[in-house]
Structures are given as C-alpha cells and as structure tokens.
Amino acid sequence: MKNKSWIIILIMGIALTISVGYSIVISQKKAEKESTVTTTSIIEMTATTATIKNTLKGSGTVKYKEENIESTTTENPKEGTSENNNEAENTEKIKKVYEITLSVEDKDFNKVQESQAVEISIKKEDKTLNYIGRVKHVNKDPLAKSTIDIEITNPDENLQADLQAVCTIIIEKAENVVALPIEAIQKDEEQKKYVDLVVEDGNTTKLYIKTGISDDYYVEIEEGLNVGDRVQIVKSSTTVVNNGEKNILKPTSEK
After folding, report:
1. Overall average pLDDT of the 142-160 stretch
2. In total, how many domains does the chain have?
3. CB under 8 Å to 140, separation ≥6 — which residues?
4. What is the pTM of this model?
C-alpha cells in the first residue's frame, strides 16, 4: 500500500515538472515572437489666426407664448363739442415669444449670464432651421437641476412649438486672435505654459506664453507668439510586433 502511495506521488511530481517546463518553453517562444518598438516623431505646428468660442451646449423643446409688451395711452378730441376735451384710449401690443428651457449641471451654471448670445439649431422634417437667441433668464435651484430660459430673437413662419432644439450658448468669444492647436501647449514642473519655438537655425527654444480662452481644438495665445511662428512637439508611439503583425498602441506626447 505504501509503495502505491509513493508511486502516485512520484507520478504527480513528474507531471508537475513537465507542466512547469512546458510553460517556460511557451513563454520563451512567445517572447521570441513578440517585440516592442518605440518610435519618436517631431510634429511642427504654425501659429495662425482663428476665432475661438467657449460654449455650453444643451437641448430642449420650443415653447410658444404671447406677452403684452407695451401699453400706450393716446388722447383724442371729443367729437361734437367745441371744448378741447380729450378721451383716453389704451393700445396694447402682443409679442409672440418662442422660448427654450435648458437643464444644466451646477459646474457649468456659473458660466452663464443673461443676454449672452445663443446659436440655435432645430430639425424640422428634412430641414435644419438655424436661429439666434439670447439668454433671457437664469434659474438657480439648489434642490434640483438649474435651468436657463432662452428666447429665439429672429423667429419666422417655419418656427412652431414642440420642436426639439439644440442650443449653443456663447460663454466667451475671441475673434481673429493668434491661436495654436491645444496639443502644442506644454507645461513645466510648476504648471507654467510654454512652447518649443523653432528659431532661425532650425533648433528650438523654450518660450513661456500667456494663453486665453480655448475650445475643443485651439487655444488663444495672448502673449509670446505672432502669426506664422512655428513650434514643435515630440510624440512617441509604441508598436508591438507579433508574428510579423504590428499592433500600434496609443501614442503619447513627450512634454
């Protein structure tokens, strides 16, 4: 009985040894087939003129209402008398108002102010209707989502209630300013912004800059650069070679 136990233990030990050895061989072969290659490239960008808009987007339903916008009093002479007695007559004007109410997150709410311009896009059947508007009222609600009332300032005969509208509130706007793509801006250890400026001999020098507003693509350069100035960034990408096939991983910027 004891001999059988020793035989079983011996067989298990041999099997374990073979398994470990096989795993090592497979790992070595896989390592031989795979290799990692890192490539570096230099990308050059030129400062240009751009119009940059910092915006806040939201969507809502068009609502229609009528408002009394003016009450005037006119005086007319009383007919049939020689006396200059006047009779008051009230005239009331009705304004057709189209409004959209947006719900916004609290973190974006503080950027919005009354009278800011709004770009409005509305889908109606197979048409896209474009309007302009303004922020009419800002409603802060600590217990729920804050809302923004937007009035369409150039309604026409195509506009009607219950249409869905996409609104772009213009928080900030800088027209015809010096700009660079966002990825061209780098930061040092103290989070100060700079660019690698290309000088006359083709080399680069670190230049600290002052930036303004930005959108999804460009950032305004308030100080440090002129239109036509060239800057460089260094990008690296990692490629894994497996059986002759290349799998490119996410590129990274060296800043």
Report:
1. 89
2. 1
3. 109, 146
4. 0.62
Tell me if 116 is assigned to some domain.
no
Tokens representing 237 are 């990408």
CATH value at residue 223: 2.40.420.20
**What SS3 state is found at 18?**
helix
233 within 8 A of 184, measured Cβ to Cβ: yes
Give dist(CA 237, CA 37) in Å, integer.
8
Span 194-247, pLDDT tens digits:
999 999 888 999 999 999 999 889 999 999 999 999 999 888 777 766 655 555
- Report which residue type is found at 51: T
Q: Which domain holds residue 195?
A: 41-51+175-238
Q: Is 45 inside any structural domain?
A: yes
Cα-Cα-Cα-Cα dihedral sign, residues 201, 203, 206, 207: positive
Asked if residue 185 belongs to a domain, the reply is yes
Can you tell me the distance from the alpha carbon of 166 to that of 54, in angstroms, rounded to the nearest whole number? 16
Within-domain flag for 170: no
Question: Measured on CA atoms in the order 194, 198, 200, 206, is the torsion positive or negative?
Answer: positive
State the amino acid at position 214 in one-letter form. Answer: S
Q: CA–CA separation, 155 vs 143, rounded Å?
A: 33
